[in-house]
Amino acid sequence: MDPNNCFGGSERLATLARQLRLYKPLQILATKPISTSRESKTVKGRSFLRGDGGLRVILTKRSSRLSTHSGEVALPGGKADEGDLDDAETATREAKEEIGLDPSLVTVVTVLEPFLSKHLLRVAPVIGILSNKNAFMPNLNAAEVEAIFDAPLEMFIKDENRRAEEREWMGEKYLIHYFDYEADGKTYVIWGLTAGVLIKAASVVYQRPPAFSGAEPQIQGS
């Protein structure tokens, strides 16, 4: 069987998948107690590319009716259920519940180092590849998701449309990164934990560090 078949015949995506499957997450020693709850977020590179040929990532705007993080930009994903086998299953199941993404359309290639939210929640970024735009027909869960859009993954290691502010949490100082992005006539602000996950994901995928400092901490403030 041609290994490129699951990536729409794209040798580039097949090569990217092979590269990411070899990624070994760093062993991070937690200095804060970690909640027993966990979340998994999906970070998806897609082959329906713009003219520049760059990979893109699916993002959502959370419903303004939610009790926490309402109206914020987020990656598809959520808390683990007891029956979930691993982070990849949590991420793909939640993506289906939130935006109607069929897990069979996603090839999971790696799981990055976990992030720790300010609520001491472990968040595992799961990278998967969706190779066919036309096969994905979004079906938003209105109770959780207000809008869906996609953005260039590479923008999260560039120092464009970015700003940052220093904060302190539990005696430690850290930077919160904000990225402004326009899609379909609307401006979205991608920040906090979501921005941190995407900075890390872009660094791994493109195999180069961000063009700015302060992206190293795994503890994020949102």
Automatic annotation (TrEMBL):
Which positions are tagged coiled coil? none
- Report which superkingdom the organism of origin falls in: Eukaryota
Cofactor(s) this protein cannot do without: Mg(2+); Mn(2+)
Which keywords belong to this entry?
Answer: Hydrolase, Magnesium, Manganese, Metal-binding
Q: Which CDD domains match?
A: NUDIX_CoAse_Nudt7
> What Pfam families does UniProt report for this protein, alphabetically?
NUDIX
Every copy of the Nudix hydrolase domain together lies at 40-194
BP GO annotations: acyl-CoA metabolic process; coenzyme A biosynthetic process; coenzyme A catabolic process
Give a GO molecular function annotation for the protein.
metal ion binding
Cellular component (GO) terms are: cytoplasm
Q: Where are the transmembrane segments?
A: none
- Matching PANTHER family, A to Z? NUDIX HYDROLASE, PEROXISOMAL COENZYME A DIPHOSPHATASE NUDT7
Q: Could you tell me what this protein is called?
A: Nudix hydrolase homolog 15
* Source organism of this protein record: Actinidia rufa
Q: What is the lineage of its organism?
A: Eukaryota, Viridiplantae, Streptophyta, Embryophyta, Tracheophyta
